Description:
The protein has 15 helices and 15 strands. It is of the alpha/beta class. Among the domains are: 2-35; 63-174 and 272-376, 3-Layer(aba) Sandwich (Rossmann fold), CATH 3.40.50.1110. A five-stranded parallel sheet has the order 8-7-9-14-15. The radius of gyration is 23 Å and the shape is globular.
Amino acid sequence: MKTVKHILIILLITWALAEGVVRMFIVRNGHAEYFAGKAWRYMLPVRYDHSSADLDPPTNKGYRVYDSLLGWSHGSWQTDDSLYFSDGQGFRCGRERFRQKQAGPDRYDIVCIGNSFTHGDAVAYEDTWPHLLAVQTGRTVLNMGVGGYGIDQAILRFMHRRPACDTVILGMVSNDLDRSLTSVYNYYQGGIKTKPKFRFHDSGYTVLNQPCLTPAEFVRRPASQQAVEVYREIDGYNDYLGKETKWWAHLQSMRLLFSSIEQMKHRKPSAYLSDDDRLRYCVRILDVFGKYCKAEGIVPIVLLIDNVNSINDREKSGQNTWKLLATKLDSIGLKHLNAQDEAMTIYKRNAADLIHTVERVHYSPAGQRFLADFIQKRL
């Protein structure tokens, strides 16, 4: 009995020491906690900071605002007081048009939709590829890009706002497919912005989480039925909501063990590289886009834009990493533009001619010009 007792005491002391050490290495950043400060070592289940200003009621003031149909978008006639300005419809525009509150045309030759790579993060409006495309072609071009969007949100915004146009260009990076697989933006890094998500069935599709839960509604406990459904649609979800109340969820050492197991499950190639159900799901979303455009008499084009992730994938594989998705787009009759070979040549020669040297994520002014030139020659 004494031996068993001694063993139990040693185990308890060891566990207590391990708990203390783990707590020393937990770093909080917003709503997320990371072990040793590594973003890929996220702690589950997520513990939310309920005192955060992120949970204040949403307003329509500010450049980036809550959107009940899309999760978030841009406010009407708003600016972030630096590079970004929006017109009365919440579409990106230049400083002068914003200052004079000039309305846009009733019809556009080209509408550009997508995420921050279409919006033109880190550069002035005049340096974005949609604006440069307008200058080069003499056509009217509308920039509907919104940072953080998946292909689902970009397409739903276009279908909902219905801007009159002849051609629509969906600019997408590889991550945009992965974003479409989930109902919460950046959930594993403490994200609290919910978004719509397609659900397909035999007779068509429905769109879940509309109106979208606000951040406060998403983290409120007990969770509403809609919140429970949103949690279930998180890519890789493993009943994290139910595990929040488990006894072991109060121990950082146990959370670290659980999180490490979950992280291994979540490590898989991006959807655009995988001929599996994830990619097939995304292709169905793109098919909705194509069929909508056909019904409206609009020419749809998918622009495959490379970022540091797909560039790294290309360097590892030695071949054009968009080929699989390109084949899928061909199968549903969607025209696509693949600039990876040209982009890689530029990147290897001088990365600053493609990627922003300060921000290090989005395209530099030179990279924006490259995209505009590439598109203009293929329209």
